[in-house]
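Tokens in:
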């Protein structure tokens, strides 16, 4: 099974077309690691809660082609885009590959930049050095993922706009909002 969306060659072409010279300077191993991180970021975006709509989250339509044994969210069967047009079963939309390439470019030589492993309970809230004291505002989590630490990359999110949908749970029903 694939560890990332697309190919290194595809990422090379994508980043070259956008003038990202930093990508070209990476080794094959760094590119591969960055693509794994970029793909994980793309998948994580499909589980983000919607900040201004409690009980709602972003997701993809359809189901994983390989079922629960499939690590990545794509390819999917029964998926449609935001316009309701079908996406061929067992395929990965170009937008998903491009989003992974764009996210991977952010990761560069440090793939952990996309999904930092910061736990809110271990973040310094108050710090005092001699007579100077600083207190930091830290959002509280109620368990589960701490999405406050996931960087928002509007360019990557825009690429996924055609395949991400908002799903809201109301009264026990899954409601898809446009």
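Residues out:
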């Amino acid at each position: 099974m694939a560890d990332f969306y697309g190919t290194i060659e595809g990422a090379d072409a994508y980043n070259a077309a956008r003038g990202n010279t930093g990508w070209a300077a990476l080794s094959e191993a760094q590119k591969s690691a960055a693509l794994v991180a970029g793909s994980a970021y793309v998948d994580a975006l499909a589980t983000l809660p919607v900040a201004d709509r409690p009980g709602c989250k972003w997701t993809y339509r359809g189901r994983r082609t390989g079922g629960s044994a499939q690590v990545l969210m794509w390819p999917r069967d029964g998926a449609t885009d935001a316009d309701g047009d079908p996406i061929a079963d067992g395929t990965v939309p170009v937008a998903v590959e491009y989003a992974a390439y764009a996210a991977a470019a952010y990761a560069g030589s440090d793939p952990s930049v996309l999904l930092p492993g910061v736990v809110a309970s271990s973040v310094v809230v108050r710090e005092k050095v001699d007579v100077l004291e600083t207190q930091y505002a830290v959002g509280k989590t109620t368990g589960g993922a701490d999405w406050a630490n996931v960087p928002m990359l509007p360019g990557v999110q825009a690429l996924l706009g055609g395949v991400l949908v908002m799903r809201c749970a109301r009264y026990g029903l899954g409601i898809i909002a446009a």
